[in-house]
Amino acid sequence: MEPEDATNTEPFGFGLRAAPETEPPPARELPGRFLGRAPRRSPAHGLSEAENARFLWQRARLLSGTTLAFAIAAELTVLLAVFAPGAMSTTGLGIALALVMMHLAAHVMLASRPSLFRVLTVYGLGQAVMLVLWNDPTGITALPTSTAVIAIAGWGLGSVATILVSTRGDMLILLGLFLGTLAHLAVALHAIGHGMFAPLVLVLGSWAVSLAFGIWLNQTFPRIMRRIAGIGNAYLAERQGSEREAHRHRNARLLHDTALATLTLLAHSGRGVDEDALRAQADADRELLARLRKGEDVRPQASGDYLLTTATAAAPDQEVNQLRERFERAGLSVTVHGSAGISSYTESGQALLLALKEALENVRRHSGVSAADVTLSETESAVRVVVTDSGCGFDPGAAGADRLGMSESIIGRITSAGGTARVFSAPGAGTTIMLEVPREAPEIPAESGGAR
Amino acid sequence: MSPRTPRSAAKLSTVHLGTGLALAGAVIVVVSYLRLLEYWSGYLVSLPTRFAWILLGSVLVGIVLHLRRTSARLGPVAFRVIVAFLLAAAALDFAGVWDISARQVYPTAAVAVGGVLVALTTLRPTGEMIVPGALLAGGFTFLLIFQTAFEPHRSPPEGVMMVFALVPLAIAITIVGTYRRMVTQALDRVLLQSTIELPSYGPGLGSTAQLTALDREVEELFARVADGTLTLPLEAEQARRAGELATELRAHLIAGHQQSWLVHAIAESAVLAGKLKVIDPQRLAAKLDRDRRDGLLSALWLLAVTDGDTNPRGTVEFQEEASPDGQITLVIIISVDGLTRLEIEPATWAGLDRVGRYGVSNTITGVRIAVRGNTPPSGPTRGHHEP
């Protein structure tokens, strides 16, 4: 990583500018609210510019708020000093009060919208307050006056150190302001005849504390935002891992269907089922679940038996024919028209087969007829299955148990595979169910959507 | 999901905030110490003040040793002990200054205590720092008022020292509090960002973990059936459990598809959770592409985020509107109560701009924003399948 100062090309680039040129602030923000050099990289990659700007703005508010707080403390100390009995002449007091108020007002303006001009205004007015204080005839030797001078030279002026730290140019200006203040202080103290040591310590201390706050706020922010972005990236990778996991579990839906069947048998204590067969089935299911847990992509065939995925896919539409045979054994004659290359090796194909199975099951149970037509068709982008019967039909608008079953097992499956399912029916007019899913690559690679 | 815990968020800020404030605190301690030396050279240091500095020095050594041993962690008990000693040192110093109130001698150790507290600000919750800060402020105020009564000229220098002791401390406490909130919010926002990469519908992180656990239990049950550990037919208790597992498994396999990415996103965000309710029976949120999701989420987050001054709550409703020419428009209606239009952050509008055209109206209790996305892409987008 390059040093952060690399962005500061101008030797005297005054840092109190709006946002960096590359990232304009949102239109409604006051440009001057953005203080400090922008971090070289966008501090949080996950954040939009506007939100990023929002956090920068919050930091800017903290910086200027800190300056203002120190300044207010300084003015209060000065007021405490000038109102001490006998501290100042009446004229001096009047002028001092007016200047202190102006100085405070300048500080408020600086906090609301920082600029170099406002910094210099604050500085100039502060120097003027100092001048009035030490030139007052009454106050020359008085303790309160010297204290007031120290308060202004220290916190009143030093507080700008908090906002003047963002670039080297700013720091140089700050150094100049500091040396100027020291010189003025030395002249004032010499005139009053006050010792140098204590005032020097206090003034230096005030500037140092302001500077520490400023540098700290200025440098911590980009660093912390970068770390947050790092955490965000790590979290995204973690989430994508979980999503892959979830996807695998959803892919294993057929496995879950068979596991559910076995579980249901067990829930009835396994009565009425051949014990050895049930044990063998449980063992097969257990093995598949174990493989799923260990990260394998487990896909038993749609048509009943428990088989692992093999490299050779079933012939296109073979599974539809298997379904047809199954329903014919159950007493529903199914005629299949056309072909669509459906196979359970794609997620959408799997969903389509399951939905088709449910649709035929609905016909078998509820239509009152023993024949159904299945029409398969495909386009470049989609695969379509239409199931038609000439049975009793129903009102799709009416809420009923049938419809609920249909929406879960048919429509839910299809929409979750990114497709659409439509049901056309009316009482006495038969039912047509149209299922359509987008075409997709035969295999969903497990590492899809990996960390970017 | 460790990064989301408040503990690690607080630590995150502490690590980076610590050194800067320690530096500021050290400056205050050094200033106080130099003042002490000044008084010392004039033989003006009373016995209690000497004791105060000895006590303060020992506490400082103790703090440094303790923090080195615990790698910059400060427990509540240790903190209370430290604060007790610090306040005792401040009290001794006040007493010492009181003792020679006629001379030009002002608190030193008590000021240094303020500096030490500044340095400790990042190590404890903001609320805990306020108490010692307030007690120290009370001591200074007491001294200021009562000494001024005897010796009016003393008050201004007293004021200067008071500023050194209290103002940096107050600012440090405020800044650290604000900073912690900012960091938590930024973290929440960054973590929320990952939810726009979610599949349109999904089971959510928690649900996936539950399904995995469920699969594990089913596997164990099957194993015990297969190897004959369990006799068939099953005993009533085991049969009941098998039934429960079947029900839970079924619920999981169905439930995963009933919630869109937005519902999961809101549930996962500390800022949004409980504040926004999604009304989307047709699950139209799934139709938004990645960029629109980002814009919508960003806007919702900005609407819900608060610094404690507002309490926004509301709903996000998805509808479809067909125009006479058959064009279908996705309409998102965001109603938020407890927020006026002026309180909405400007960046919110930038987010909504990316979703579609929007209109804002005031309601009695808040604002209502209707966003129209003119051409929702055909079919739900599935972030998951992007390479």
TrEMBL record, chain A:
The protein's organism comes out as: Mycetocola tolaasinivorans
Task: Cite the GO molecular-function annotations of the record.
Answer: kinase activity
Q: What residue spans carry the region label Disordered?
A: 1-46
SUPFAM superfamilies per the UniProt record, alphabetical? ATPase domain of HSP90 chaperone/DNA topoisomerase II/histidine kinase (SSF55874)
Q: Which domain of life is it from?
A: Bacteria
Q: Where is the Histidine kinase/HSP90-like ATPase domain?
A: 351-440
Q: Does the keyword Nucleotidyltransferase apply?
A: no
- Quick one: a GO biological-process term for this protein? phosphorelay signal transduction system
Tell me the keywords, alphabetical order: Kinase, Membrane, Transferase, Transmembrane, Transmembrane helix, Two-component regulatory system
- Transmembrane ranges? 62-84, 90-109, 116-134, 146-165, 172-192, 198-217
InterPro entries reported for this sequence: HATPase_C_sf, HATPase_dom, Sensor_HK_TwoCompSys
UniProt protein name: Histidine kinase
One Pfam annotation, family name?
HATPase_c
Automatic annotation (TrEMBL), chain B:
Superkingdom, taxonomy of origin:
Bacteria
Keyword annotations of the record: Membrane, Transmembrane, Transmembrane helix
Q: Where are the membrane-spanning stretches?
A: 12-34, 40-65, 77-98, 104-123, 130-150, 162-179
Output this protein's name: Uncharacterized protein
Q: Which lineage?
A: Bacteria, Bacillati, Actinomycetota, Actinomycetes, Micrococcales
